[in-house]
Amino acid sequence: MLQVLLARLGQGVLVLLAVSAIAFAMFRYVGDPVQSMSREDATPQEKAELRAFLGLDQPVPVQYAKFLGRVLRADLGISYRNQRPVAELISQRLPATLELVIAATVISLLLGIPLGVYCALRPGGWLARLVQTISLIGISTPTFVTGIALILVFAVWLKWVPSFGRGDVVSLGGWTTGFLTASGLKSMLLPAITLSLFQLTLIMRLVRSEMIDVLSSDFIRFARARGLPAGRIHFTLALRNALMPVITVTGLQVGQLVAFAIVTETVFQWPGMGLLFIQAVGFSDIPVMAAYLLFVGGLFVLINTVVDLIYVLVDPRLRVRAS
Amino acid sequence: MKISMAAVALATALTAASAHANTLRWSFQGDIATLDPYAHTESFTANVLHHIYEPLVRRDRNLAIEPALALSWQVVEPNRWRFKLRPGVKFHNGNSFNADDVVASVTRLLDPAARARGNLATVVRAEKVDDMTVDFVLKGPYPLLLNDLTGIYMMDREWMQANNALKPGNITTGVTTHASTNANGTGPFRFESYAADAKLVMTANANWWDKKVEHNLTRIEFRPIKSDATRVAALLSGELDLIVPAPLKDLQRISGAAGLKVIEEPSLRVIFLGLNWRDALQVAPGQKNPLKDVRVRRALAHAIDLDAIQKRVMRGKSRNVGVMVAPPVPGYSQAIDKPYEFNPEMSKKLLAEAGLASGFKTRLSCPNDRYINDEQICIAIAAMWSRIGVTAELALESKTTYFPKVDKGETDIYMLGWATLPPMDGFSVLSALLATRKDGYGGNNPNGFSDPRIDDLTKRAAVELDEGKRRALLTEALKITHDDVVYLPLHQQPVAWGARANVDVVNFPDEYVRLWFAKVRN
Question: Which residues, 6 or more positions from B49, have their beta carbon under 8 angstroms from its beta carbon?
Fold first, then answer.
């Protein structure tokens, strides 16, 4: 167990090193922070001074080494644009993104599983076919199109929910939450649905195909032969067996959702990490971009490690191999 | 914790109930960078902060400079200006405004770590003469000090001292300051709260020194929205009162909606094409640069159908120009604001005279996210040039990668917009775009343009304190750029805002939103 964990940790560090190195190699092509930070009519001398002041006149490997040195001292630096500590900027926006991801995950599970089960049980029914068709649209429409369409219908025409922002938030220690106010919940609806669509479709299709597999397996046939009630066969026996891969995929998808949130957050002006990142790209704000990429990389490593550990706990064969 | 939450909720409910009629909800495409007036160089951030902080002199309704925190001034020596301060002005925390505040503010701004210190580059220091008198010591004679001071906001010395903010933040040493998340000015609105990317709230300052209050707002909620479509949707759904800017393609939709209106005016920002002046073009190394021949430059100018661009690409909202500054800017002259006539036959003739009857190949570089319809303008121009045999290979890219290339002189023909801000004066065109790149001049003249006549005019205008003579020098230089086609001016781009019909706001060509001139009708 410990061995697995240590091996994972080592791999994680390597992944983060690779992510940050690639990021630093690419920053040069994203733009020039000195240009963004200078006045429009700044003199060449002013720009040269600023470049030296920021250490951007040094070779990229030197800049990267300095960055790593700071990260090892738990210092993510200061944003070029806001001149606020990057760690503070990220921690301020983390709650918004995580709450959005949680809401999207809940929506996709609550709708995806029943719809998947329904489609598996009535594969030829018109409703199942309709759901399947809509799900194809859901999986192939770009997020910003869905988002704008939802805003048009539910915010502009029907005026049921706000078109942007997070509504009123309540501060609990260092965490801000929109789950506790009416306007916070209303504001979350459209972005959460937009963000959940892809995952909802994925879960629905996964549940459907797994259910169809399980339903045709021997033990279900025996259960039927024994005369067990259909409800018990479908939900207690078949669904439970079909859910194992769903749990894995949902876990892995959480990382994807954080990454996908960039587009959703931009469309809905959701004050999360994705919006922070996209603005940092627009300004060539290297400290913020580097910290965000490191954070997302770390998140993926963490999720994968947790999933692996769960496998080891659940599957006795893996435990034997590890020891 | 609970009590404070309840109190906040109650307070919000009360203000919402009592004042909702005169709250103005305003949106822009980005958030402010910081609340610290000296820690940024963004004109929009300076614009928002102008509601809280104030300069010694400010712009009036017609953009003329008028006294604000300073009452009067005189040039006591060519490099020493004396300002009498306005008595009885209070900061929002109740402290009195005096000479110590001015000295502390200027010292903070001129600190090497202050990002905005270039905004007051000619000032050496401020000296207190007495409680209500301050001297500004300059490097030499400088006619544009007042223009510069319109963008320098005054901070409270005691407040900075109490909050350890006398020095600005410093990126390299990791020092951050209280002033970047808090604000205490003298302006018409007081800072109430700020949540990044979400909301900045300001409330009317009942104790503002300017008793000629022209606005009737009680509260401003600033809500940044990055996405154009969402910003328009939020205006249509009634969640906002004012959006800046309104995308050109949505203007009809906004003006057609019940209860909404569009306010538009040509902006100070003039869009033009800059040229490569080196010996060879980037696309044709080793060959003679055809752009150095004035006949070729005139041919390019005659081949651009400005009216077509104005009607089709800009939907009739822009104003075609023949000179590099807009009419309200000192140095402008109607006599030289004559665009080259659209005449492709003339272009072909000129090219033939220059020995290029079969045309030539060049590159047209443009940003696709900086100016209004920048990409479409360049596509149109490339097509127009192809009709006279000039093949302009298009290079379109995001501003973050585009401007560094322009700055390094890696472009042949490139798009640039210039609003002469913050000084709002034609001298910035001379010093940044036209003067030869050396001794601090020519910061935006990266492609080797150099004309001794213009260099001479620039140096003289830089120290000419007689306003009439100074403007004549600027106009003379701008006339040379017109006659020699140093740049190819296209148009003034429009400023368009969308607002609720019951909101009266003044639209300024410098693209500033000045809500102390705003009224909400009930």
Answer: B32, B35, B37, B153, B183, B185
Structure-token pair, residue B160:
């900075």
Q: What does DSSP assign to residue B60? A: -
Handedness of CA A197, A203, A207, A209 (dihedral sign): positive
- Which residues in chain B have their CB less than 8 angstroms from residue A89's CB? 196
pLDDT at B17: 41
The answer to whether the CB atoms of A55 and B172 lie below 8 A apart is: yes
Q: Which residue of B has its CA nearest to A67?
A: B172
**How far apart are alpha carbons B56 and B52 in whole angstroms?**
14
Pick from A32, A85, A155: CB nearest B404: A32
Catalogue the E-assigned strands of B297-429.
Answer: 319-320, 361-367, 391-397, 413-418
* Strand B361-367 versus strand B391-397 pairing type: parallel
Considering only CB atoms, which chain B residues are within 8 Å of A263? none
pLDDT in tens, B200-213: 999 999 999 999 99
Q: Let me know: does A202 contact A139? Beta carbons within 8 Å.
A: yes
Contacts of B443 in chain A (CB under 8 A): 41-44, 46-47
Burial class (CB in 10 A: 0-12, 13-18, 19+), A72: exposed
Kindly tell me if the per-residue pLDDT of A198 is higher than 60. yes
Cα separation, A255 vs A271, in Å, equals 18
Average pLDDT over residues A181-197: 94
Q: What is residue B16's predicted lDDT score, i.e. its pLDDT?
A: 42
pLDDT on residue B20: 54
Region B381-385: mean pLDDT is 97
Q: Does the pLDDT at position A317 exceed 70?
A: no
Q: Are B232 and B243 in contact (CB under 8 A)?
A: yes
Instruction: Evaluate whether B440 touches A68 at the Cβ level (below 8 Å).
Output: no
Whether residues A78 and B171 touch (CB distance < 8 A) is answered with: yes
- Residue A227 CB neighbour total at 10 angstroms: 6
For residue A112, the one-letter residue type is G
User: CB–CB of A266 and B226 under 8 A?
Assistant: yes
Nearest CA in chain B to A283: B400
The structure's pTM equals: 0.88
Binned at pLDDT 50, 70 and 90, residue A323 comes out as low
Higher pLDDT, A323 or B472: B472
Which residues does residue B137 pair with via DSSP β-bridges, in sequence order?
B80, B125
* CB within 8 Å: B237 and A80: no
